[in-house]
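Sample entry was shown:

___
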Amino acid sequence: MKKAILIVEDDDDIRELVSHSLSREGFSVRGAPTGIEALNSVKSASPDLIILDLMLPDIDGLEVCRRLKADVSTQTIPIVMLTAKTEDTDIVVGLELGADDYVTKPFSPRVLVARLKNVLRRREAAADKAGEEIVVDELVIRLGKHEVVLEGTPLELTATEFEVLKFLAGRRGWVFTRSQIVETVRGDEYVVTDRAVDVQIAGLRKKLGKYGEYIETVRGVGYRFKE
């Protein structure tokens, strides 16, 4: 079956451009020019992925993302933010809310399509590993279910926090630079700053409590999950 993509973009020309590019690649596409229409569209028919502009005429894209990630029925839908905003704070907020990728305008339709396919492949790969787990004492990372349980209690992690934790914990003892973490979690062309990675690590440590000590800072290099 065709993958269904919802394009949330108030600019008619951009929405048509993205829609045409995706249709040519075999996707089923529908659009929404406002945040409210997007939320209603998702409720009526859940898409496989959402392309979400940040600057919308009613509620902004960050609020749309926040609502979708707070709802158990929609929180697993991957979101790729498409926006003209390039400030570090916008990137950090998008990551913290659980966006799967971040593409800035102006953009190449071919690159956008490639990034969407990459996000969908990552989700499918996770589904194939439904029964796999990474266990560190009382910390259990369930890959397929995309959940983390600490001492029997489920943790609420953003999609990015989960990917960072899975990456580091799956390679215990290895040291990775911030750029290596970003390239693995988001892809080679994902534009993000060192500060954004530090924000993810800080959030993880806080949520992991005493297990946060497992994520070590290696000065001048990056981070590792200690053995």
